[in-house]
Amino acid sequence: MTRRLGALLAAAALATLAGCPSGDVDPPSDVLTDPGAVIELATRDVAGLRTLAVEARATQYSDAQVIKGKLAILVSRPASVHFSGLSPTDDVVSVLATDGDRFTSFERGGKVCYTGRACPTNVGRLVPIAMEPEQLASVLFGRPPVIAHAGETVTWDRGAGAYRLELEGQDGVTQRLWVTHGRGEVKRAQLVKDGKVQVDLAYDDFGDEGGFRLPHRLDVKMKKGDVDLRLVYRDVDVNLELDAGAFRIPCPEGIRVEELPCPEE
């Protein structure tokens, strides 16, 4: 389990996957056979999604325990993300914020405030999703980024009732996307390297929010770090005007500041 997110949730004092739908669904009469058309279907509204404000329930699973908590999540494209851990009375008890370049993370009453470059390693130290902030923002929107690829195929997955895209990237990496017909909802996304699933994202409980189809449940499984996380979105707002200061939080006065290095640099 990622220690920092575990602390983020535990601090809220609430301690105690979804897959594609099953069945045998025939392809629609106007089934798409061009992979590019399915990619366009899945990404057509991405540019219109600017910000996201969510109250979410988070559940992190491990062999030892299950930790639950309430989070306030703010996202502003391209790469700004803010998590606040909330108490049962909605007091902020912990903060993790990044503007895409730097990050800050601390707990109320804690002795250390962590800062540093928002590289994948540092993001992964704090939440169990070791991605660039821009990628993390896209995942939280329910629009996982499409990898650069040289080859692409599409088939109709009867068991999922959705298109299955296979995108061949570099260095043995393949991306799989399951996309619904018509609405273009990404129900699932996987990154596979050398035949092994490294990242598995599953989206469910889609609803209309401000003219966009957004998932209200996100399951994240990552081989690195043995990640198993579920986010359930409750109150959702899109394209609100968010203060840039929400993503550039200073460390509290009187607390020790620790700079976390980026091994990538």
Give structural notes:
The chain contains four helices and 14 strands. A hairpin with a 4-residue loop joins strand 8 and strand 9 (173-179). Mean pLDDT is 89; it is low at 9-21. The chain has one domain: Clam (outer membrane lipoprotein receptor (LolB), chain A). The chain is mainly beta. The protein has helices at residues 3-10, 35-43, 120-126, 133-140; strands at residues 51-61, 66-76, 80-86, 92-98, 102-107, 112-117, 151-157, 162-168, 173-179, 186-193, 196-209, 212-222, 227-238, 256-260. A 14-stranded mixed sheet has the order 7-8-9-10-11-12-13-1-2-3-4-5-6-14. Helix content is 12%, strand content 45%. The relative contact order is 0.21.
Blueprint of the fold:
Layout: H1 3-10, H2 35-43, E1 51-61, E2 66-76, E3 80-86, E4 92-98, E5 102-107, E6 112-117, H3 120-126, H4 133-140, E7 151-157, E8 162-168, E9 173-179, E10 186-193, E11 196-209, E12 212-222, E13 227-238, E14 256-260
Parallel strand pairs: 6-14
Antiparallel strand pairs: 1-2, 1-13, 2-3, 3-4, 4-5, 5-6, 7-8, 8-9, 9-10, 10-11, 11-12, 12-13
Give the fraction of residues assigned to helices.
10-25%
Give the domain tally.
1
Any idea what the radius of gyration is? 19 Å
CATH class category name: Mainly Beta
Specify the structural class: mainly beta
Question: In CATH, what is the homologous superfamily?
Answer: Lipoprotein localisation LolA/LolB/LppX
| Total DSSP helices | 4
Question: Poorly predicted ranges (pLDDT <50, ≥5 residues)?
Answer: 9-21
